[in-house]
Amino acid sequence: MQVPKPDFYQKMRDELREWLQSKAGKDYRYAEFLLAAPDLVHLLCRLMLDRDVYVKDKAALGAVLAYFLFPLDFLPEALIGPLGYADDVAAAAWVLNNMLTRTDPEVLRRHWAGEEDILDLVQRIVKAADQMVGSGLWAKIKQRFG
Length: 146
Known about the structure:
- The protein is an all-alpha fold.
- The protein has one domain.
- The protein is built from nine helices and no strands.
- α3 crosses α6, α6 packs across α8 and α8 (118-133) packs across α9.
- The longest helix has 16 residues, at 118-133.
- It is globular, with a radius of gyration of 15 Å.
């Protein structure tokens, strides 16, 4: 019997955990946000399929999902490793936060696979993003996904 290869979600989760346990990632201040990356990808995919999400928001969700999956973004994972997910997490939180102006928060909650309340997590990531990715990069992310 052949063992299935890990999917993108599991591979990302394993990569992040391994890095955060290494010397390089052990003291990373925003580790909990990076660990949310796989669950954010899952949430973005689920929201793209939800009929209660406006088409305009689905376009933004698709854009940030593509940003997550594209290897050469502002902080490329291919070059700097799992720390490169920081900008992806910040972009996802920004899009989700903007989406909440038109979408019932329960829509996000019903698709969230993470342990923490998604609304609280999004707010904390948005609040910390300026320091997490740097103010210049944060301004570019907000402009790109505005």
